[in-house]
Amino acid sequence: YKGTRKKMPDELAEQMPIIKDVLRAMNIPILELKGYEADDILGTIAKKNTENGIFTYLLTGDKDSFQLISDTTSVIIPTTKMGKTEYTTYTPELLMEKLSIEPYQVIHIKSLMGDSSDNIPGVKGIGEKTAYSLIWEYATLENIYNNIENLNTSAKVKEKLENDKEMAFLSKELATINKDVPIEIDYEDSRNSEVNKQELYEIFK
User: Fold this and answer.
1) What is the pTM of this model?
2) Contact yes or no for 33/50 (Cβ under 8 A)
3) Collapsed DSSP state (helix, strand, coil) of residue 78
4) What is the Cα–Cα distance from 85 to 124, expressed in whole angstroms?
5) Maximum alpha-carbon separation in the chain
6) Which of 118, 136, 130, 117 is nearest to 164 (CA)?
7) Spatial strand order in the sheet of 84-90
8) How far apart are CA 160 and CA 87, in angstroms?
9) pLDDT tens profile 62-118
10) Measured between alpha carbons, how far is 27 from 4 in angstroms, rounded to an integer?
């Protein structure tokens, strides 16, 4: 479904193996699995950590990860202004304060408004403003369609929803992060440890 997304620039792609060499020399574990996206792996780590009583901070530029926020998982979003990077740590409380939604509702909003960068269609003609107002009032996509006959919205919006019901539910599926990627986390291997200075020095040199 992400067939229209631009491929990674060659200049970045050719740096990936080098970045991994640097991380290994720094004794930072790398978790990856062919066929799965980074946010699916992040979601799986957060879920496994919760099951193991470990609090998780996810540092990412992807606001789709807001759906992973919980009492045991916070999402840290970096923003750079005038050359200075600042970090905002999103908790369920901050998400409610800033967007007036709960973490699970991130998926439902995206299923209505879509996301062109991820090639998620959403409901044609429904933008961010309408998507938020519908979710604020009806909480979930299912509840919107359960009340489709008496929706507190214009006839035009209702018609768009009826015409694109199938796309809305497909979009919900596409927007949902997979938290069951078949990966194992070695917690002992994940502890902070000394970097391999000699190896790093050779790479950097």
Assistant:
1) 0.88
2) no
3) strand
4) 36
5) 69
6) 130
7) 56-59, 73-81, 84-90
8) 38
9) 999 999 999 999 999 999 999 999 999 999 999 999 999 999 999 999 999 998 888
10) 36
